[in-house]
Amino acid sequence: MFYIEDHNGRHRLLKYTPQHMHCGATFWGPITPQGTGFLAVQSVSGTMPDFRIAATGVVLDLDKSITIVKKLKLTGFPFKIFKNTSFIKGMFNSQLEVAKFEGAAIRTVSGIRGQIKKALRTPVGAFRATFEDKLLMSDIVFVRTWYPVSIPTFYNPVTSLLKPAGEKNSWSGMKTTGQLRHERGIKVKQNKDSLYKPIVREKRHFNKLHIPKALQKALPFKNKPKNLEKKGKTPKDQWRPAVIREPHEKKISALLSALSTVNNYKIKKAKVKHREHLKEYLKVKQKEDEQKFKRQKEAKKKIYRILGQREKKRQKSSLKGCSKGEKST
Question: Which of 1, 44, 161, 302 is the most exposed place for a label (fewest CB within 10 A)?
Answer without folding.
Answer: 302
